[in-house]
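User: Hi! I have a protein structure encoded as tokens and I'd like to know what sequence might fold into it. I'm fairly new to this, so please keep things simple.
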């Protein structure tokens, strides 16, 4: 399901708390952009039993990745937030953990800046603008 050539960000399977099938289901729901029932999703997973897909959707719901709406006898499921928002939450949690585990934040921040620069130099300008915006927000909050 995940296409490495795709320009859209993919959920990291490690550290997201999601297994491969859960990730595929969530990606499919984002791609469809509307609530879907097990019956709507099942044709996309021909090797799965109805109950396996139902269990996977229920597990994603209990983990807080999906919301569900009752429609007759079945639930329709949809992601609770966008792919980008979830990626942001996952990265934020990991980054806070990394900063908390180190007494020195400079090497960590330096690594972040290097990684951003290696990927795309224009992103450094974007990072600088975000830093400036956050500084302004903090100043306004303090006043």
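Assistant: Happy to help. Inverse folding works backwards from shape to sequence: for each of the 143 positions I chose a residue that suits the local structure. Here it is:
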């Amino acid at each position: 399901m995940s296409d490495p050539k795709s320009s859209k960000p993919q959920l990291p399977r490690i550290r997201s708390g999601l297994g491969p099938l859960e990730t595929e289901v969530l990606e499919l729901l984002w791609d469809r952009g509307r609530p879907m029932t097990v019956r709507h999703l099942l044709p996309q997973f021909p090797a799965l039993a109805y109950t396996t897909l139902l269990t996977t959707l229920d597990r994603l719901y209990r983990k807080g990745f999906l919301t569900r709406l009752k429609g007759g006898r079945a639930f329709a499921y949809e992601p609770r937030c966008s792919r980008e928002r979830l990626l942001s939450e996952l990265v934020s949690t990991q980054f806070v953990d990394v900063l908390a585990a180190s007494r020195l934040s400079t090497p960590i921040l330096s690594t972040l800046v290097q990684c951003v620069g290696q990927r795309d130099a224009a992103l450094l300008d974007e990072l600088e603008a975000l830093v400036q915006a956050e500084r302004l927000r903090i100043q306004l909050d303090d006043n």
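A useful reference point when you look it over: Residues 121-142 form the longest helix (22 residues). Feel free to ask if any position seems puzzling.
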